[in-house]
Specification:
The structure holds two protein chains of two kinds. By secondary structure, chain A is an all-alpha fold. Chain A contains 21 helices and two strands. The chains are: A mainly alpha, B alpha+beta.
Chain lengths: 446, 215
Amino acid sequence: MIENESSKRLSRSQASWLEAHTSEWVSAGLIDADARARILRSYEVESAERHGLLALVLLGALMFGIGVLLLIGYNWARIPVNGKIAIIMSSVALAFAASAVAFARRHPVSGETLALIGVLLFGNAIWLIAQVLHMQGHFSDAFLWWAVGALACALLVQSKGVGAGAAILVGVWVTAAGFTVDRPLVSFLVVWAATVFVAYQQRSTVMLKIAALAAVAWVSMVSDRVQPASVSCGAAALAGCAFCAIGLWHRASNPMRRAWLTTGLAVLLLVFIPLLMTDMHHGAEVRNVTWRSLTVTVPLLLVAVSPVLRWLRPDRAGADSATAGPQLADITTLLTAVGVASWMGLTAAGFAGSPMWTRSATVGFSVLALAMSVSLIRKALRTDTPADLAFGVFFGLAFLLVRWASLIDSMLWSGLMLLVASAGFFAIARLWRDRERRPAMAGSTS
Amino acid sequence: LDKDQSRIIMMMARLSRSLRALLAGAVCLSILCGMLVLHAWPLWTGQPVLLPVTPIDPRDLFRGEYVRLDTPATRLAIRKNGPASDGTIAVAPVGPWWDALPPGERDRSAALYARVVYVQLERRGETGEHQPVSISDEPVPDRLNLRGRVRWYDSHREQLTVEYGLDSYFMQEGTAKPVEEALRARRRVQMEIAVATSGRARIRRLLVDGVPVGP
């Protein structure tokens, strides 16, 4: 199957839609009948016969695969160890050889699918070989090596599917390793850098988002064994701010910018929920800050505040409107990073525990959550980005739900709070609906 | 000519993607081969050692017919002189590393957690079994060193729980029965391992009353 041909293939419903609309366009005088005929001719409608044949072939292939696996499984105990290893290795080799043949015969989709099957068989091979040879070790290491193989495959075969799978494996590895003794420090940085490199090379935003989430899992787990929960939570919040900052270093037209920003805001949103709770600050445990936590938090803070350098740079020639200067939401994110770092520093210095500290920290994070909400909604209205609007609303909702839970005993205060909140949401909906009617705002959008 | 050239370029591009798929397969197979060699190295070069073992459980809930094994070297009481009071094997620390550990209970535990240690084994008795005699943080020259990692430190008993990667043995479906019976009848179960000069060990086979069991 050739990719450019497959991209011109339409389903029955899509073809009906196109036929109906082009007919309307001809009636409206937008295109002539000849152009309509040319447009319709340039697409191929998928037939039910083709679907049926494909289903039969897939069913046959599936039954063949399961049948072979069952036969091997039935005789597995009788097969000598060397035979088992040969079967395991050959299955991986065969899948990649078939992928190579598919690419050579100009079937890129089949080639990528077979490469993905090869990667799955490779993962299966790691566990089977370990079982057959009584190998022992941390089970997370198996995910590491699986991820390394998948990353190499994604890079070489240029498959976004394999790339996304590799990023998931990196996430599974770091999560699994978080529960074992040897938490990866340097090895994660190397694997993560490779994952981000492959994501950029393929321009895969999905892969980048998954890799960024894996990094959050890592920063919150790496110092957990010897540090209180505040360090894990604070490190995750700093990671969210750092992702937003990395996004700001990209041009507005770069899809990676949106991927970094979305992931950063999603992480911040999740971390803000515990940070808004009074119990989090009331029960903050004071321990000495270890070098492991510093190696994570200090670089994250530096990255999070790095956009200041960009904003202070006198020559911004060539910068587009969205990246030219700081927006209120960007400054709020930066202030959040400074606030979280200060909170972590003061907690480590022994200020935590007193009622005054608990109140101040709760109020401080509540103000930050509200500031994030307002600034993101403002940014969404100025730049016409629904994602920022959604995040702004979610930050507002997080603040509202946590505070409402603390006022739930008082019907008066909780009722008043909900009324104010409803007014706020109605106002946001109205502002969003009317955004295109305001020329000054519309003019400032990209 | 241009048409031919573009056809050659297209063929090269196709061929290169095809070759890249083969290269991806080669990378995956290299990792598997690396696993095999790393595993086999102590078996090829290591010194055979017989350890007494206690099968804890003939089946693992998640992995099927794995025999979970416990060796006397798993729990070690650190004593400079004299035996341990609870029957645990006492080993003497070699070198200044034990005394150099921080004094506080929490700091001592943190310093020991996940630390690589080497347990020196010596052949004792007529059964040919090896027993731990001392513990160090580096391999001791001219001694049989077994490399492990500290999993737990009991400060009250001054006891270490050490993992050597020898605590489970895969059995084929239905073959774990002799081990299960040996477990019930309290028969002699031993594990033959190969210990490389680096101290890394691999299980060679499991023996019940001196007879190999399993695959």
